[in-house]
Design brief:
By secondary structure, the chain is α+β, with helices and mostly antiparallel strands. The chain has one domain. 42% of the residues lie in helices and 11% in strands. A two-stranded antiparallel ribbon has the order 1-2.
Length: 96
C-alpha cells in the first residue's frame, strides 16, 4: 500500500492517508470494469502513475474470460521477470 498510495486511483479513496483500517474501509474489491478506464488511459499514452506507482512495462492479454472478451492486464517489470522465468521452466525439455 505504501508504494501505491500516490497513484491517482488510490488518492480518490484515501486522500493521502496510509492507515490500513482506512484502506480496508474505503477501498472495496473492484472488478476489471472499475479499473478499465485507467487501463485505457495508460494504453492511450498517459503515464502509469494514474493506476500504479511502478512503471507499467507492458500488458498481458487474458484468455478464457467470462463474457468472451479478452482483457488487458498491466504488468510491471518485476512481474514480467517472474513470468519469463516461469515460462522458461514450463517450456524446458526437462519438464516435458
Amino acid at each position: 500500500m505504501q508504494v501505491s498510495i500516490v497513484s491517482q486511483y488510490l488518492k480518490g479513496f484515501l486522500h493521502g492517508q496510509t492507515d490500513k483500517q482506512l484502506f480496508k474501509k474505503n477501498v472495496l474489491i473492484v472488478t476489471y470494469e472499475d479499473v478499465k478506464p485507467y487501463i485505457d488511459r495508460i494504453v492511450s499514452g498517459e503515464t502509469s502513475d494514474i493506476l500504479l506507482t511502478k512503471p507499467i512495462t507492458g500488458f498481458f492479454l487474458s484468455v478464457g474470460t467470462l463474457g468472451g472478451q479478452p482483457k488487458l492486464m498491466p504488468v510491471i517489470a518485476q512481474v514480467a521477470k517472474k513470468w519469463e522465468l516461469f515460462r522458461g521452466l514450463y517450456e524446458s525439455p526437462v519438464i516435458k
